[in-house]
Structures are given as C-alpha cells and as structure tokens.
Amino acid sequence: MRHSTARAISACLRALLSLLLPATGKRRKPQRPAAACPHLTSPTPPAPYVSPWSRPWTGPTKEEAAAFFRRQAEADAAREAHLQHERRKAAAYATLGVDYPYTYEGAPFGEDAFRATA
C-alpha cells in the first residue's frame, strides 16, 4: 500500500515539475504526419542477410587438395632420397680419405672450403 501511494505522489510531483520548470536540451517542433510532408520518405530497409554458406565453395576440392599434398610429399621424399644418396657418397669418399664437398642449406662453409691447395 505504501509503495503505490508513494508512486502516485511522485508521479504527480513529476508532472507538476515538468510543467513548471523549463525543459533542458533541444526543443523540437511537433511532428507532422508523413502525408503532409512529401519530401520525407520512409527509410530503405536494410539488405537481407546472406549467409556465406549459401554461395558455392570457391576453394580447392578434396581431390585437388589431396593431389597438392601428394605432390608435396613426393617432392619431400625425393629431396630426402637425394640427401641420403649424397651422405652415403660422402661416407664412401671418407673411407678412402678424400674430402667430399658435402654442403647443405645454411652451412657455415661453402664448396671452396674443400678444395685442396697446391
């Protein structure tokens, strides 16, 4: 009971104060209906949402991706086989006492370090 009475009194006070005290902020003129203002048009509705999954897939297919990774694996295997062959060749030369110019990417020395000086 007290809350409803307090709310009724505060609503009356708010109404009286809004009439007696000037409002702060920008004052606006009353709105006219849109039919009376032909220059006012209704805002255009936003574009409908288009899900990215509704478009066809533009990336590689499963077969194309598998072929790409297969080629990459074959190239890695060929590179590793070449390196293993070169290491075996260097080991065979080492058993004969000959320095083989074995280098690798990022080596701190080049092929000229193996040349014999005469």
Task: Characterize the overall form.
Answer: elongated
Mean pLDDT: 81
Compute the number of strand runs. 0
Which H/E pattern describes the elements? HH
Based on secondary structure, the structural category is mainly alpha
- Count every helix, treating DSSP H or I runs of 4 or more residues as helices: 2
Integer-rounded radius of gyration: 43 Å
Specify the biggest β-sheet: none
Can you offer a commentary on this structure?
The chain is an all-alpha fold. The protein has a domain at 93-118. It contains 2 helices and no strands. The protein has helices at residues 2-20, 62-96. The chain is elongated, with a radius of gyration of 43 Å. The N and C termini lie far apart (116 Å). 0% of the residues are buried. The mean pLDDT is 81.
Quick recap:
This protein is mainly α and 118 residues long. It is 46% helix and 0% strand. The longest helix has 35 residues, at 62-96.
What would the keywords be for this entry?
mainly alpha, 46% helix, elongated
Per-chain topology:
Blueprint lengths: L1 H19 L41 H35 L22
